[in-house]
Each structure stands twice: as C-alpha cells, then as structure tokens.
C-alpha cells in the first residue's frame, strides 16, 4: 500500500505527489513484524554519529556559549526589571496575581523556579529565555523532515547567530518563549497531517496552551496558523476557485477596514468588514455544496475546528466590545474585576464555551469507520483496499479540550490562589487588554518601522526568503500547469529513517511513516510563505510596534531562508565545480563587495586635495579589477551552465552576508548591548545604572557594611531600580512625595519630575551627579514623513513622538538628500556599518552619548561627608598643600623604611576607617589615625583597641 494513502482527499491538488524512497533490507525484528524493546536497542540506535550529528552538536554548543556568555553584565531594561521583580515576588513571597498589562503568567513561574534553584540575579533572571532560545534551535532540528537536513542546518545556524533571535534569547521578555511555543504548535500540526497520531495533537495543543499563558500575541500566531489550515482544507475540497472565492472578499474587506480605521472612520470600517464576511460566508456555502462529506474527512479541517473550539472562550472580549462595551475597560484590571462586570463577562464566556462545545460535539461525533476507496465505492462487492486514516473522535477532543483549559486555569489563577480575578483577567482580560492597547499605539512607530529595523538586522534571512518565495511560486505554478512533481527537499536530504522499510502493526497493516510525504513538504513550504507574510502584516497593522516583536518575523524568515539555501547547496554539482575550477565563482561576490567598499572610501572626501594622477590610477585599477571579476564570472557561468554558475555565485554572496550577520550580531550582543546606538536597545538601562549601584555599594561597605545602607528612590527611577533595591534591606521608596525620613538617607535617587521637590532637602548637605537611567535609539527616521516634530534634545519620554504615520506626506527631499548629499550618505553609512551617529544639525560633529536626546535621567544625591569616598570632588586636604619655605629639607640618606606591624580595619565607634591618610604613634604607644573620609581623628591604645574619636565635618560656607 502506498505510504501516502489517506494523507489527502482525492480532490487535493497535491494528492498525486508521493515519495519514492529507496528500499532497504529489513532487519530481523522488522521481518517478523516485531520491534525490539527500549532496553534491547543498542546505543548506536539512539545516537547516529555522522556528519549531520557532529554539525548539530557544534551548533548546540555554540548556541549555549553565545547565549550564556556575558549574560548578567547588562543592566536590566525597563520591562526586564518588571518581569524579574514580579518573578522574585512569586519566588520569595508567593505573591503574584495575573495582570494582562504584564502579559501571561508562564514566564513568572519559570523564573521563580530558576530563582529557587540558582538564586536571584541579573544572570539567573535571564536563564529562562536562554533555555527557551536553545529550545528554538532544538525545534529547528525536528523540522528536518520538512526542510531537509542541510536546510535545517542552515536554519539552525541562522537562528543561533541571528542578531534578533540571539539578543532576545538573552532578554527576559516573552518573545523567545512565544517563538518556541509557536514552533511546537506548527510542528505538532504538520506531524499530525503525516502520521495521524494522537501524540502530535497533544504536542500541538501543548504549544497552544502554554503560548496563550505566555503572551497575547499568540492570538496573531493562531490567526496565521488557523487561517492557513482553513485555506488548505478549502483548497483540498473545493480547489483553487473555491479558495479564491472565499478568501478574496475577506482580504479586500480586511484591507478596507484597516484603511478606514486608520482614518478614524470605525463605523464604516465595521460595515465594510461585515459586508466582506457575509460575501465570504455565502461563497463558502457555495464552494462546499455537495462536498460536506469530504469536508468531514479532511485532516486540515479537523485541525482548524480543533484550534477554533479550544480558543473560542477567549473571544468573549470581542462580544463585550461588539455589544457596546468600551474597550478601554480592559486597560485596568480593577475596572473589569468588579462583581457586576464579572457577572456580565461570565455570561459572555459561558456563551462562547457553549458554542465551542456544540461545534466540537457536532464535528467530532464519529468513530472513524473504515471507508472504501472512492474509485470502488459504487461496487459493493469490490475489495476494500484503502482504509481511512485515524482522526480524533469526541473522547480525544474532550481530552485535548480539558488539557488546554486546565493549563489556562492553573496558570491564570496562580494555581487557584487568585481564582475569581485570575479567571477574569486571563480568559477575558488577556485579549481585551491587547485590543484596548491597539488604540494607544505605544511607541507610535511609523508604518515602515519593521521594514527599516528588520532589514538593518535581518538582511540575510530576508534576502534568502525572497529567493525562496520566488522558487516556491515558480515550481508550484509549473507543477499545477504541467502536472509535474516537485519536492521542496533535494534528493537524499531527508533523514535516513525516511528511506527505510515501514513497520507493520500487529494486524499486518502498514503504519504511516514517521517521516513526511512530498505533498506535506510542499504544503510546509507554502505555509512558511504564509507565516512570513502573516507575521509582517499582522505586526505592521497592529498598533504597538516594538523591536522585540521583530523576533516573530526573524524566526519564519530564518527557517524558510535556511530551507532555500540548504536546498540550493544540495543542487550544486561540487565535483564538477572542483574539476572545472568554477568553484572560484564562490569568491566573486565577496571580491566585488570589497571593491565596492574601496570605491566608497575612495569617493569619501578626506579634507585634503588628492593628487590627480594618483586618483586616476586608483580608479583605473578598481574598474579593471571589477571588470575582470565580472568577465570571469560570466565566462565560467556560461561554460559550466547558467544554473550552476548562479548557484556558486549565490553561495559566495550568502557566505559574505553571513559574515556580516555575525559581525552585526557580535557588536549588538557583546559590544553595544546596552547602548542606544543600537535600534534593538529600546527602553534599556544605560551603563550608568550599574556604575551608580557600584558607587552606592562602595559607600555601604565603607560605612555600615554589606548593603545595609539606606537608599531612598522615587517613582521616576523605580524601573529598573526597584529590581536592584531588593538587595538593599533598608531601601525606602518615597514615590513622588519626598519625606523628611526618606531625605535623611545617605544616598537618594530622584528622577527629573521630582527634582524640585527633593532639592530643598538636600541642597546644603548633599552633592549629586546626574546619570542616564533609560534611553531609546535614534529616532531621526521619523522625519521621512511630514509628521509631528521629534522631541527636542533633553526630552525624556519617548512616547512624545509622532502619533501616527497615517496622513503623513513623504519627504522626498530627505530621501533624495540621503542619496545625493555626500555628507548625508556618509552619516547614513556610519549608522548602518558602525552604529555611529553624527549630529544631524552639524554633520561635522558626532553625537555626544552623554547628551543623547532620547533618554530618561536620574540624580544620585550623596551626603557630602560620604561623597569623597566615591567621587573626586577636586578637594585636597591641608596635608597635601604646598609646604612653608622654612621647612627643613630631608636628604635621601636620612630616609628610613619602617615595616608595618599591625592593620587597622575594624569598626571604630561603629564606623570603619574611610580613606585614612596617616597614622602616628604617641609617647605612650597610642595610635592616632586621621580618618579623612569620616572627618575625624581615631585614637587607639598600644594594642589597637579603640579609645576615643573626635572631630566632625566643617562647612566654611555655613553662617
């Protein structure tokens, strides 16, 4: 029996595609239909040490090193400090209640468990993201059955070194968790299409369940994945025309809704969307007319219905809004956890749950009875030679439903410690808060934000993805036009198990393969394109645009781009290239790139007038080298075949881009990891935070020991300072209302808005230094459109930016100026290549990072008598002033060395010595120490025991 039997319905355009694996000899166990037990298998059966395994081991080792190296060096960003502290509260006090503003509860439980194992620090707070980042690499390995072994290796390398994915694998936010669970969801769904086994439905539902308790953007991922399986089912049942007739009105009405919504015409937007959905529903009924039996037996339809019934109760928030409720209600949990509101929301949830159960029962109420092949169905006496594959029944659906919602209830209620409010904030508030925030548009980034930042960091997977999209559309259209087969994975590039003999079950029926069918591999390639477009479209249309969300666009591009590049490399005839020396074409693209850089440098003004003859000779040599490379490349390509030549040229270009990617990723993650010169460093703590904390630690150790110093801090500096203040047991939070008690602290931290309130308390007895607390990247790209002005230098709040790019006019003068003006080109080149910024108002000067315009500052006030222990205040003690003229000169031969016999490092009168300058011994053996830092004289007896101390700070400016 063919291994593809039952994979797709007869009407599926891909159903005529099948694998033709090379047969292998059956083992003794396989010949008698039995399988060896787990303990009876040799170790080699689990670990196959071949070239592929060695490469994957190397990838995992590199992934571990790159993610753990310097993990705790960077200070916590604004959001990181929130997540870390709430996790710490759960770990230390069991104090956590779900709040949609802080996203899902999963991350907090993971971090709390890691604190329990390894303690709490910047390093351990980021272990969770590291582990799930490694999990993403592991999931790429499992996708070998769809993108090939070499394609998976290329994708694994890009995920390991990719700037965005690496950065957010070392960053305690939800996005790398979401990337992992999205891959689990996708992997489980596609493995079910191939194997029709319950275990893969469990895997798929696990990816869904834990993703929804992690972050609300899993709804975007659900829309992307679910809509694809809906389209796949329509394609298989009704063909291309049925799919187009349903999806076209949906797409058109969706675009009309967005345009009208951006224009502020929400009423017309809803009308347009409603009309489009009605047309789509009518088209759906027409497309499925007479085909309902095929729909009920369609595997993608099973998956789509299962996904819908699982998440349907979450849609209660939409019902609330559509029935006249204010979306802003979900902005604050206190507004919708009131008893009267909870009752109303509970009714909506119950209605959605009832609809979910009704759909599930109606769809899965069957027992999977055997069905004859459609070709023989009209002959009752014909031999049955095709058995319908397994599909879930009502019992399996109920178990999956129970598992999914058990996870939701446990995490949202913090394991039943916050039951009522947790259910409200989790089931309704999660999606409701996300919907409410779309109107807020945090960050107010322009519509082209991801295009700008994405190409700046993820240029390699973006280029490879464009090549892959072209390849897929070309081959699929050719296959549909000529009815030819196309396998997205090159011959021999599947895992070895894909070419083995299938095992038979106890009834003698051949089990479905653990590998993948050719049709599913083609479907996965199409899904990857849909995933890429869906992610770019979904996150671009969404109101909130942040750099960490680029993770969800980089991941599908890395997987799909890795597939294309691996497939291309497998199709290169390397033996012929070596024999004909055309392998040298690999170096053509890097050589041209180097020449382009030389030309750029040669054309950049140096400020001195170059010699004309030298300039002409230089340009002649550059053009000659370029012409030679182009000629040889074209000659070898024509001689050895255009396709072979293009593949070799492409391999060299990708290698060059990969080196540039490594450089970009290294500078981002290990050089500029906390510098706002990087566009991914958004709302991050500056290096000043840890510098200021180190100074506070120094004062504490020299005065009261350990971190027992009293530190007062306000609401302006609370994040990230609240996370660090947990280490100071005597820290005092005074919000925006300074008190006498808080202002008596030796160290006081205050933000700009509270400066005027604090200064009357501290102006006489304290000195201060100003530091950068949180900062944001360069925002000059807003000026590409005629929009509200960018904040002036010194503005601290990044939210004071253009509200929207809607209605803005393109500044063609700026775009052309960036190309035509050499000074602007040079500024742009320095930003792209080196992340160095020239002042746009004076291109001859570099931006001063100390005066970076997009920053939030804080002042550190230190008591005047303690400040010299950490800061150089340019004050010299009298002992270091110039000596009087009648002081006798001591000749070198009069000097003698005295060996110290005792060390004085204890607490004297409750204080340690701070910056002691001299010690003298009196006639009676008393030790007299000048304790400069504490402005006193300490007297000890001849045994070093404390006798007395005297002296105090004197401010000569006081009246």
Describe this structure in words.
The protein is α+β, with helices and mostly antiparallel strands and 959 residues long. The protein has a 6-stranded mixed β-sheet with strand order 1-5-10-4-2-3, sandwiched between helices. Strands 13-14-15-16 form a 4-stranded antiparallel β-sheet, with no helix packed on it. Helix 2 (51-68) runs parallel beside helix 8 (149-161), helix 3 (78-93) runs parallel beside helix 30 and helix 10 runs antiparallel to helix 11.
Class derived from helix and strand content: alpha+beta
Q: What coarse outline follows from CA principal-axis ratios?
A: globular
Specify the number of helices: 33
The helical percent reads 40-55%
Work out the number of β strands. Answer: 16
Order of strands across the biggest sheet? 1-5-10-4-2-3
Our Rg estimate from Cα atoms comes to 34 Å
What is the end-to-end distance? 104 Å
Ranges with pLDDT <50 over ≥5 residues? 1-33, 367-386, 501-512, 788-807, 875-890
**Largest sheet at a glance?**
6 strands, mixed
Percentage of residues in DSSP E strands: 5-15%
Mean pLDDT: 83
